[in-house]
From TrEMBL:
Signal peptide region: none
Biased composition (Pro residues): 428-437
Lineage, broadest ranks: Eukaryota, Viridiplantae, Streptophyta, Embryophyta, Tracheophyta
Name the record gives this protein: O-fucosyltransferase family protein
Residue ranges with Acidic residues bias: 667-678
Key word Transmembrane present: yes
GO MF annotation list: glycosyltransferase activity
Species the sequence originates in: Manihot esculenta (Cassava)
Length: 678
């Protein structure tokens, strides 16, 4: 009996063990399924419990939107209140002809700004040639290795369906070439044109169109940030409005990028206060192109000079290697440092607890250059402090792991020869072999300092750098939307490493189209450098006269800067200044009749900008509803008398305690605001 009991017990234990193994295998299988198919849910949960690095700090009471100080800091620019976006066709504009002349396939090279400008141009070219446009191919994504296979080329950044639907009445858009033409393209049998950014309509009508009619397809390679001249003849004005419809209505970022951008905007506005967007524009290419190396006085100076020597060798820069950076700065050719921008904002009256969003993926010099700005403003944030790693990884999609994360140094041929000669040397005793070379650690190879003294050439991009370049497109997309939607925008620099207007110029053009009356400072760097030199020794204890000069300059830059952009920036790209072609003027009938003795400031600004088209009648209702508010603002403007201290973290409201500027200076500034453009 005892033996039988032991056998039964052992058999039961075997069954228990078998059931345990089955349950363990089933548990592992369930965990695998959860990890494989619920990545998005885990990301959302992770982002919901993550503690963000930004904790807003406010000590001043929130200003009333009807207060004079709030209007001066955050209110609309009165002279531009009559300007409104209007990119709809204004004359006879026929629908695209069903039978096109052929297909246009486009390969676009460059960064975010170049891609956006080029897409607008190729749409206009397709309309001009009556051709069918194939969704453009973005080289920044197709040349990258290891990026997500979920998003390819154009779809990596923009929404293809929205792009196609929005342009249905302008051109015909298809996703791919027909099979026969696709095979010809693989064999490189279709004609190709490498076009410049200033190509004229004559070039396309007399050189590209005959080839298109003959082969039914042409390939355009766009690498200069555009493929059609910015200024078109008057009879092609409708094509300028087509550019606006493409840039501001058809080009929408893909859903994942748009969702994250909306989250970041909501987090910025969660405290219930307006915010400033600041784009430093301090890239190594721009600093090298304009010779601003001596602004840093450290290892970054050598890095800039190395890049400038490389540019001179490739004839990108025609000047000398050594340039007086002080003279360049005084001429306005160098960017404003973050510290100088912070001083301007504090001098204008923005308190220390103002929210400032810093855009741009790369601030040359690292976070060290932003330390003075953090010292002047408590709430300085960027996209990394307003989002989590999980949220950013979602917009990238599933990406493979890269093995060659760091650049491997090439083997030294000299050391190999020494070791080989030691082995084949004469009879023993022989000298000891040479000691091994010092190992190069990743932090020595990853940065610029790892190769700057080894070669005169720029190093080739690694796989991880190519992937980062693709990620930068998504980062720029997030920064672009936030800068356009910001209550105030100020650029540190408006040119890139090729002498062309940069990302900030593209943002300012979009803001001028979408909300012309929103505050967009365009400081004159030459004048700012002069004002800063006047009080360089007492910069943080500036007197009232200097503060008044800074405020007066920034106030004038709101209007004068936009007017000057028409002559300086528009010849490079139409999107940098889409006025007057894409704007309409909404006149205020009541105000005009009350001031018949002199023309209103809005009318004078419209005349200078060339806006002659009147807005549709359906906009008039909103105009009348705002008349009373505008009259109230004019009355309140006469009593702006408190500006607060320059650098003091005072407790209380913005309007309490603080060095006051006399009332005569305030009334003078108010009078300048109400006067027209000279």
């Amino acid at each position: 009996m005892k033996g039988e009991g032991k056998m039964v017990f052992k058999s039961k234990m075997k069954w228990v063990g078998l059931v345990g193994l089955v349950l363990s295998a089933f548990s592992l299988f369930v965990h695998f399924l959860l990890a494989r198919f619920t990545e998005e849910g885990i990301a959302e949960y992770q982002s919901s419990i993550t503690i963000f690095s930004w904790r807003p700090v406010f000590e001043n009471a929130e200003l009333s939107k009807t207060s004079p100080l709030y209007r001066r800091l955050w209110g609309p620019v009165r002279r531009f209140e009559s300007l409104h976006p209007d990119a709809n066709p204004r004359g006879h504009y026929a629908d695209p002809i069903p039978l096109s002349n052929g297909y246009i396939f486009v390969r676009i090279q460059g960064g975010f700004r170049e891609i956006r400008n080029s897409i607008c141009d190729v749409v206009v070219v397709a309309r001009l040639l009556n051709a069918t446009l194939v969704i453009p191919e973005l080289q920044s994504t197709t040349s990258s290795k290891g990026i997500s296979s979920e998003f390819k080329s154009f779809a990596y950044l923009y929404n293809e369906d929205q792009f196609t639907a929005a342009l249905a009445k302008d051109i015909k858009v298809v996703k791919t070439l027909p099979k026969d033409l696709k095979g010809a393209r693989r064999k490189k049998e279709i004609p190709s044109f490498r076009v410049s950014h200033s190509a004229s309509p004559y070039f396309y009508l007399h050189h590209v169109l005959p080839v298109l009619n003959k082969h039914s397809v042409v390939e355009l390679v766009v690498s200069d940030g555009g493929c059609l001249q910015a200024m078109l003849p008057p009879h092609l004005e409708e094509y300028q409005r087509l550019r606006c419809r493409v840039a501001y209505h058809a080009l929408r970022f893909r859903e994942e990028v748009q969702e994250l951008t909306t989250k970041i905007l909501n987090r910025l506005r969660a405290p219930g206060r307006p915010f400033i967007a600041f784009d430093p524009g301090m890239t190594r290419d721009a600093l090298a192109y304009y010779g601003c190396a001596e602004l840093f006085q450290d290892v970054h100076t050598e890095l800039i000079q190395h890049k400038r020597a490389w540019m001179i060798k490739r004839r990108i820069v025609k000047g000398k290697l050594s340039v007086n950076s002080v003279e360049q700065r005084h001429n306005g050719s160098c960017p404003l440092m973050p510290e100088e921008v912070g001083i301007l904002l504090r001098a204008y009256g923005y308190p220390w607890d103002t929210i400032i969003y810093v855009s741009g993926g790369e601030v040359f010099g690292g976070q060290r250059t932003l330390i003075p700005l953090h010292a002047m403003f408590e709430n300085v944030v960027d996209r990394t402090s307003l989002s989590t790693v999980w949220e950013l990884s979602r917009i990238y999609g599933r990406e493979v792991n890269l093995v060659d994360k760091y650049r491997k140094p090439p083997p030294s041929a000299v050391e190999e020869k020494k070791l080989e000669s030691w082995k084949t040397a004469g009879p023993r005793p022989r000298p000891l072999p040479p000691p091994p070379a010092r190992p190069k650690y990743p932090y020595n190879i990853e940065g610029w300092w790892g190769w700057v003294a080894e070669s005169d050439n720029e190093p080739e991009s690694t796989v991880i750098e190519l992937r980062t370049n693709a990620h930068k497109l998504l980062w720029d997309a997030i920064d672009y939307v936030i800068c356009v939607e910001a209550d105030v925008f100020i650029p540190g620099f408006d040119h890139d490493g090729k002498g062309h207007p940069n990302f900030a110029s593209l943002v300012m053009g979009h803001r001028l189209y979408q909300s012309a009356s929103s505050k967009t400072f365009r400081p004159d760097r030459k004048e700012i450098a002069k004002l800063l030199e006047e009080t360089r020794e007492h910069l943080y204890q500036a007197n009232h006269t200097w503060l008044t000069s800074i405020r007066r300059h920034l106030r004038r830059s709101l209007v004068d800067g936009a007017i000057e952009a028409s002559a300086k920036l528009k010849p490079f790209s139409f999107l940098f200044h889409p006025v007057p072609e894409c704007s309409c003027s909404r006149s205020n009938i009541t105000e005009t009749s009350a001031h018949t003795s002199r023309p209103s400031s809005d009318t004078q600004v419209d005349a200078v900008l060339g806006v002659t088209h009147h807005c549709p009648r359906w906009m008039d209702g909103e105009t009348i509803s705002r008349l009373k508010d505008k009259e109230t603002e004019e009355v309140l403007d006469e009593d702006v008398s408190s500006f607060g201290l320059f650098f003091k973290n005072g407790v209380g409201s913005h309007e309490s305690g603080g060095g006051e500027i006399n009332k005569e200076e305030n009334q003078l500034e108010d009078q300048e605001e109400l006067e027209g453009v000279e």
